[in-house]
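Per reviewer request, we include the raw input and output of the structure prediction for the construct analysed in the revised manuscript.
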Amino acid sequence: MKLKETLNLGQTDFAMRANLPTKEVVLQKEWEDANIYQQIQAKNADKPTYVLHDGPPYANGKIHMGHALNKISKDIIIRSKSMSGFRSPYVPGWDTHGLPIESALTKQEGVDRKSMSVVEFRKLCQEYALRQVEGQKADFKRLGVTGEWNNPYLTLAPEYEAAQIRIFGQMAAKGYIYKGLKPIYWSPSSESSLAEAEVEYADVTSPSIYVAFKVKDGKGIVPEKAEFVIWTTTPWTLPANLGISVSPVASYAQVKVGDRHFIVAQDLLESLAQTLNWEDYQVEAHYQGQDLDRLTAWHPFYERESLLMVGDHVTLDAGTGLVHTAPGHGEDDYHIGKAYGLDILSPLDNQGHYTHEAPGLEGIFYAKGNKLVVELLKEKGALLSYSEFVHSYPHDWRTKKPVIYRATPQWFASIDKFREELLEAIETQVKWYHPSGQPRIYNMIRDRGDWVISRQRAWGVPLPIFYAENGEAILTAETVEHVATLFETHGSNVWFERDAKDLLPEGFTHPSSPNGKFTKETDIMDVWFDSGTSYAGVLEARDYLTFPADLYLEGSDQYRGWFNSSFTTSVAAKGVPPYKAVLSQGFVLDGKGNKMSKSLGNVIVPEEVMNELGADIIRLWVLSVDSESDVRISKDILKQIAEAYRKIRNTIRFMLSHVSDFDPSKDTVAFEDLRPVDQYMTAKFKLFVNDLLSAYDKFEFASIYKKVINFMTVDLSAFYLDFAKDVLYIEAPNSLPRRQMQTVIYGILRDLLPLLTPVLLHTMEEAWKELPGVEGYVQLAEFPQAVDGTAYQALVDQWKLFFHVQQGVQKALEEAKNAEQDPIKKSFEAAVTLYVNEEQAKALKALSQDLDQLLIVSHLDLVTTPAPDHALVLDDYAVSVSRAQGHVCERCRAVRPEVGTIAEAPTLCHRCHQIVKTHYPAYFEAE
């Protein structure tokens, strides 16, 4: 028998090499075959319900790291709730309507939209969307995300569309839906109206011009030789000018410059003189803004008048104090124009080209109109100054091209009519986890205008509105419910397949259609109305879910998107928010904090990471980042995460290998019979569990990561498991010290593996299979319960002195290792003397009779005499290190004086001799 065979070297099939890309796929197939998700739901059937409602990603393209952050974060929460006393079903969903799918068909797949009917095109859109759903679904499942993948919700599903129509009907019944002609965001590149949530800002270079409008009728107040000066950065809107707005409380000066007479705000005169190079000017007269009301001016290049109007929206922050007003191209312009009875003129078509209402510019794209309008102004002598400047301008978030403000007939949801209900609900009915969440959505809803809900597209849910013979809109509870029922049975394509009369209830009549003829609306709903009614199509539609949801979790951009639209429609239709709490996350950037883009070559693709490192590495990265703000990812960051994973895995592997011969039903040692150090480690772990449970409950992922890494590397690897080798390897298999440590290690594993399962589910499932005394899947296990930590904290506090002196010992050992003469390279070669006071000596001895073992040195003396000069003096104690006397024991590697004196075992120390002689007599027989 060899001496090595007398050691407990530990055994486990939990491999050091993770090989996650291969193992994860095998495990996922096993879980799918075993219906693990259904088993989890069955296990938790009678528990309180916790619903995290999935915000639907858009069904277009491969998933990116933003998707991974979002879906894994949700999965961590769902799994932690499912393992801590809740029934937490998860229904994933997809947003399947909208312009990007239409564009993908025409641009990527070469579909000729104009060669087919709307119904044919919509069917192609549906097929494309469903293909995208399947592709993204496979990637989400590969990330380890659990849920009802066989029964997700899709916004194109007939039952979902029907629920959406019914919410629309409820809002209409309350008077919140109306049709109006007013300026809205319009995207010429998409040929559709946009909601505020579909607009993003980017820098552009725009013209900055000052224009003179000659007085037409000064009504005896202003001479007709005078000219009103306006400033604008949108020359292309001048063909739509119908007025000039002034401030009622501002003072205006008439100044003579050469042979011209200009009127501008008095407070801006000095700065304007510099801008317009008025080197020599004379103030001729002053007017109050109110005095200018209803005077008229000549349009600078059309034979029509512009009305002077008084408006509170006019400020003196910039410009001239006189504001160019085109009611068809600005919100303030619209409101003052309506008040003064002006027409709402918007001489552009859906593609942004001028119409016949802009003579001389017909067919020209509005952006090119800037240059042509400036030339017209020059010809007429109306242009006083031209320059260019860079500023932030609204863009279509899909096409990335500029949008315009344009008046068109649209359907709106009135926010004004229930704004106060919305604001009150924000403050009193929802928990906003992000510190800026509440003020952000509050300010948005406080300041937002009415919601444009109509879109001039084909792929979406039709507005269920009919028109009578005289053009009157028909939107009644009866017609809406009939359409909803048709959609529920046939899907929304039926709207385009049938004539209006076949979509109305049988025998339907209306006083405005005496001949029984009807037409139907051709616009579809804003896709934010689609996803924004998911609570009705999912939470209320499935009896195992609850409304309102306990949590919505999405990116921070959703305060203007899904959080907002869902909140608005729910409060409008139901009187309550659709969620009890909202958690938002930042965006995923590259390692330098830049946005990822193919052109920069900094894109990290989840699929590639999973194939190279495994899904558990991405999941650990999600845990590690503080997603309250923007987060970063790069290959270097993933390498760091992979290294942290390796430490976690190897620590678990070491622990598993040393409980392989431990039967928890027979070998467990009661807490009161453990050594003080084992009780300390148990107490430390109990407090760690409490911290983790609290962090899970508060969704503090980064805190969990830090606590796990610290516990595994500092408390376990660097301390308990480090000195444990002298017990686990060396002591007899069934000895009390070994069983004491195995009891602690097993107890930690038994609770730690479930605690880490919501994050590292593949790795923990693999480890669970190697843990004695447990059965089934770790995903079906429960989290350990939180405990009263008072007694445990008191026990941990007793060890502060030990770790205080341990630091000094380690420092002294490091100095001895680096000594020029006779360096002591290994701690087991050292003998340490600790110079402490009486109280410290007593306290340390009470902690352990084997302090040398805990400090991993061969000999330790505790003395209360003054320290010699050569000792390392620290705050309240001192340490000296010398070479341990004796020889190295071949079995335990400690230096002992008796090694070489035992005739029967000259290479062993007394301890190892006794263990081998008692438990491995064959070793000596072989000798």
